[in-house]
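[stage:ingest] chain + small molecule (S-adenosylmethionine)
[stage:ingest] validated
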Amino acid sequence: MSAREPAPACERRWADADTAHWYSTQRFRTKRSLERDLVQIRALLKRHSIHAPGVVLDVPCGTGRLAPLLRGVAQRLVSADVARAMLQHAKQAAPLNEAHIEADLRALPFADASFDLVVCCRVLHHQATPQEFAAIVRELARVSRRWIIASFWDHASLPALRTRWGLKPSETRHAVRRALVRQVVRDNGARVVGFRSAVRWISQQTFFLAQVDSAPRAKQ
Ligand SMILES: C[S@@+](CC[C@H](N)C(=O)[O-])C[C@H]1O[C@@H](n2cnc3c(N)ncnc32)[C@H](O)[C@@H]1O
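[stage:predict] done
[stage:export] tokens:
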């Protein structure tokens, strides 16, 4: 992106200190809301026997909400986010020797195949077009050498249907079809091996687990 281009809304949304503080202290203040994503990630790891995934990247890490879970399974955790204010909260709650890196998901500052597992939670549904969605998946697949776990909003869910019917007219986030997720992942040298949501057809927030092909990938 050129220096003159304004940051997309999805980035501006979390850029200030008040929002970061709210996200850290209020957004997931009930145990139920805090646990919701963690349960799905744990279930995917368990179902696919991913017990000790080595070096793990959490991007975007936000205020470090997933870090306790990921730290528990990883040999080393690296956290990255574009918003300095969010990253600051994540850093405060982390051990001193853990890496926190200011980075744009669309151009991650890591070499190809740097991580055993890349986790990307709650950002893909903010992408306005399939091209923007694909640009992020491309980077996740590029820096992973084995696994990707990412959340998206499932088109085949009741809340997405309500949005399509115009019952949630102010919605700015986007649901996509599982077929599109599979296709975009496949286009980037990986393969979806599982989907997981709290309640199929009802829950919009859905995770996919993808396995990166072990064959060397062509540079794009
Ligand atoms: C809803 S929060 C999710 C944070 C964390 N994954 C979680 O589940 O709590 C979305 C995060 O995406 C980050 N973000 C948005 N666009 C980004 C980009 N292009 N590169 C890196 N981070 C981005 C924001 O700064 C924010 O921290």
